[in-house]
Amino acid sequence: VKLVAFDLDGTLLNTDHQLSAVTLGKLRELHALGVPLAFATGRSGPAVYEHVAALRLEGGPLPCVCYNGGVCFEFPQPCADGADARDRKTILFASPIPLDDAAAVVAYAAAEGLLVQYYVGDDIFVSPRSDAHLDLVRRYGELTGATHAHVDAYPSDLEPAKMLLMTDDPDAVLAKVLAAQASGALPAALTPIRGSPPFFVELLRGDVCKGNGLKRLCELRGIDAADAVAFGDGENDVEFVSFAGVGIAMKNGRDAVKAVADRVTSSTNGEDGVARAL
């Protein structure tokens, strides 16, 4: 095994969205054995950094495939003197949504009364129009630790790494998005994904997914797919788990990811399922 990559929410993190002491110990043990680690998540860089910092690994930087493959950051480990490594990250690769496609999503969301989260670099732009929108922003911030930039209009000159349509009925919104793509109301080149946790639908550039993100990371590191292990739980982990030589789905995972996995953990993310499987 030359790389072990982990989804975060619903997989590596427990039900409180934290790394448990058991999981931290197992990851540090792997690192001490010389096994490279990586995160792969739909989260932004700032929203993943707290878990990079919690690891406190000795040695080189930790790669994080963020935005479901839209950007891959590499975070240096926090310095011994406590200096924050968050702003010293580098970008290994990026595949943003084209501006015309982003504008079409913003227009569609406005017509449907949906809130958009618009991701550029470390910023998440939102333009809430109702109390329900504000509640969705609050809940997302509480879940991920992310902060939002409130704007009157989305930045039409900045390509987003990804976009979220915030909703408490993601299955219905996903069905409408797919229908809109079929009718031409939304760009067919975009990939829509039901969010995990389930209060949004995510939109990515058509060739972007965690699986391609892991593939590009392996290529940069000179690692064969057969030598990679991937853990995931959500529909956005299907290609990710499929690509790895050993793909492992969580017991609490969606049926779609279990169907393509080589193995399924015997425990959930709330029961240190990844640590037990490792």
UniProtKB/TrEMBL annotation:
**Which sequence ranges form a coiled-coil region, renumbered to this chain?**
none
Taxonomy, top ranks, is:
Eukaryota, Sar, Stramenopiles, Ochrophyta, Pelagophyceae
GO MF, one example: magnesium ion binding
Q: Which InterPro entries match?
A: Cof (IPR000150), HAD-like_sf (IPR036412), HAD-SF_hydro_IIB (IPR006379), HAD_sf (IPR023214)
Q: Name one GO cellular component term.
A: cytosol
Q: What is this protein called?
A: Haloacid dehalogenase-like hydrolase
Record's signal peptide: none
**Family annotation (PANTHER family):** HAD SUPERFAMILY HYDROLASE-LIKE, TYPE 3 (PTHR10000:SF8), PHOSPHOSERINE PHOSPHATASE (PTHR10000)
Q: Which Pfam families match?
A: Hydrolase_3
